[in-house]
């Protein structure tokens, strides 16, 4: 017991000694005593070094910030480039979509042609846009009607309106861009001219053939104020070339107010090189088109395309007398036909 107490006291002593000598331990090797001058010099050297370093750093910083500015500019430019390239991509995308639908269309047509070679009866024949509509083609656009020996019809590119009033319409005339002149000769009007997606005349020979079975005609018109009107005829026949593509019309219905095509019923076709009209004048030259000129017009749907501002002072424009008078040239016209017995 005593021995234990003694050792505890010894440990305590050692601890105390250690504690007392502690500051000594903490003291590092005695500092070199430097003269005041030297101390100041050292301080200034240090400060100078620091200053240099700061200068260096601020240099670096300004360099960095310049670089950042440049980076920022380049980032902005990259963003702008990205935007424009995304626009380019969008354009390419829509182009690609167009091509895709065109390819689809072509596949449809190939399928049609394949189907056509199998079926050789007139009932199944692809005759016009209404036959296509009956075969469940419901998208308006360009279709190629396959040639048909049975019907004696050549291959023909047509634009089908599959939406208006039940669809199944084969478009025979369109005016909407003014990029195609309709002041053409007999041969051109016989064969057809223009571009199937833009302004065109399908051709008197094709129109004659398509109107061989009982057919309706629909004329759609738009003026420069955006108003739309239509005229429909319960019957439409274009005679053959021997009969100068004489026009026969049935009863009118529609919302254009006045039947301005009726005046042209039972008259033959005239062009600038074939004056078949009922006038001493040459109506085709006066009205600058090819049409069923009487003496001369109540309507002139194949006249000259005049743009807004120029559209309301010409007798040779695209006119429909009963709507806007004889000097107002319309903005858009479409003539389309489909069989009378068409069911939708
Ligand atoms: C800045 O630092 C770099 C690298 O440490 C050195 O080479 C340069 O001399 C310094 N410039 C100044 C102004 O101190
Ligand atoms: C035109 O209308 C008249 C009188 O309503 C009618 O008798 C005639 O059959 C109609 N013609 C055609 C082709 O629909
Ligand atoms: C158009 O002319 C033909 C031939 O004269 C005639 O039979 C027909 O009834 C006329 N159409 C209309 C709607 O009057
Ligand atoms: Ca004449």
UniProtKB/TrEMBL annotation:
It is found in: Secreted. Transmembrane segments: none annotated. Residues 120-341 form the Fibrinogen C-terminal domain. One of its GO terms (biological process) is blood coagulation. Residues 1-26 form the signal peptide. The keyword Coiled coil applies. This is Angiopoietin-related protein 7. It comes from Chrysochloris asiatica (Cape golden mole). The lineage of its organism: Eukaryota, Metazoa, Chordata, Craniata, Vertebrata.
